[in-house]
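Researcher: I'm preparing a figure for a lab meeting and need a structural model of a single chain. I don't have an experimental structure, so a prediction will have to do for now. The sequence is pasted below. Please return the structure as tokens so I can convert it later.
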Amino acid sequence: MANATMTLSSKYLLNRIYSIYRPLSRRQKRYLLITTDIFLFCISIYLTFFLRFETLLPFSEISKYTGLIITLFVIKLLAFRFKRIYSPIIRYTDVEFLGNILQAVFFSSITSIVLAYFQGLWPIPRSILIIDAFLTLFLVIGVRLLIRSSLQNLIVYTQSSRCQERLLIYGAGTAGYQLVRGLLNDPHYCPIAFVDDNTELHSQTVVKGLKVYSPKNISKLWHQKKFDTVILAMPSINRKNKLRIIEQLQDLSIPVKTTPTLGEILAGKVAIQKIRNVDITELLEREEVAPDTKLLQKQVKDKIVLVTGAGGSIGSELCRQIAQQQPKCLILYELNELALYSIDLELSENFPCLQRYAYLGNVTNQDYLKSILNRHQVETVYHAAAYKHVPLVEANPARGIENNVLGTFIAARCAIDCQVNNFVLISTDKAVRPTNVMGASKRVAEMIIQAFATQPEGITRFAIVRFGNVLNSSGSVVPRFRKLIAQGKSITVTHKDITRYFMSIPEAARLVMQAGAMAKGGEVFLLEMGEPVRIYDLAEKMIRLSGLKLGHDIDIEITGLRPGEKLYEELLIEGKNVKPTEHPKIFCAREHFWEWEILESELNILLENARKNNIEELLIELCRIVPEYQPKNLLIKKMAEAKSSTEIISLN
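Model: Understood. Here is the structure written out token by token.
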């Protein structure tokens, strides 16, 4: 009972001390530290006299030298101020800072000795100055280390009601060492050990008594020390090795986090101790190819560029990538007010010198879009505006056709009329043998671009870039899975064997820019997407990375394929016409399409049915324009075949 009372009393006292110290301003804390140093100078000079004369002199004897002692103190304080000893926050004191104290004491002592030498009749023995220098150095450094340690312990003790996250650091190299050093000042984390593949480091102590263990002992280590999270402290590790390590750790069902990449650290974007979750893009079994700077800049550097759908996932990333290539002007065209505001604000903060304009508008508004193209004399257009969510477009086919088909037609027509040099359509793998309205509408959009590319009028060079899913885009599976895991709800997957191609949003945007730069007119560029990913496997990996167990903490429910959804996606309608390009991840193909004279009349029928919301006739016409379209209602397909009277042509 007495011990408990003492513990409560001591904790109350420490809390009171911390509550008094914490509200002090930086200036007040600096004055407090200066006062402490003056007190230490007094102790140092008194001990110096004792060591020099081997007896404790009375204060009356020492007071004879008051003027000289004050001069010595002033020199020390000026030297400390010159070396900025009072600028850093004391609880972050490091070896470099202690070196500054050494220099300040050395400088002040040399100054005092020089003054004593030129003074001639200096009443204090010069040896006192040397002894005082060593004592000052010892006391100032010792007290600062004591204050730093006390503050760290005080913060931890006063916040001990919060649970510390116990960390196992994977990687005992420089990054791991710096990470632990950075976390020592954070009361929320407690590093407990290192793990490293290097056998020479095993059983060695790296920092603060933390030992290095073999990865083979992780399971045993977890039972002994019960850590909460594994931190990968290997910023320069390649994707293959990182994937191997993460797969080894997944059996423990412990959250795995990582330090920033080497590029982020070198660029000064983040510090080494900025721990983050492992991005699911890091688990894709494909390496990103370094972009070709010439191709990236060809259509945007020193040019006036417009991006439709600038607030969407791909559109906004295109804006970021374009801004990095120093365009003459960047024009953002977006229907959603919040999305436009967000990307415009981001660009203003990250690229303050970039000339840009933000326009709220619909791509189906021909007069407004044409006025913008003419006003700014736009040279390159990236058309990213589209409805992309399969179930929504399937339920609202007329609106999907208006936005994806009519929007593309108007944007391309305006580009021709305004003599835009380059026009790039962002398409999707769902346009290949589509089974849904969204995919079919994007295939029609491709055909419009292909047909326009063969027209002799105008100077516009058209290109189509087709790729699969991008990770972390709005409404995609990764953000949805992440949200469900955070809520502790079951993850829903439509089919256990459903697969999709994936790539990161930045890589997709860069490849779009590079593909467009290689266009000669009417090509369909395909981005190499790597191996398709099984969505069920993706969900499993995300569950394990979150430290949860499938079937115990969270389940995966199979809900069945949605209307218009395919088990797998393709990038080509005909695989014979694929040709490599100068970029190893970009291929070129020539797909079949309608001649413009035929397509124009069919488009008029399609768009008229969309305007009247005549869904059955709209779907029949969609089947006629896109023969490979397989709607869920096979009767629609048969009716379209019965009405078909024109032949589709093929370009090789």
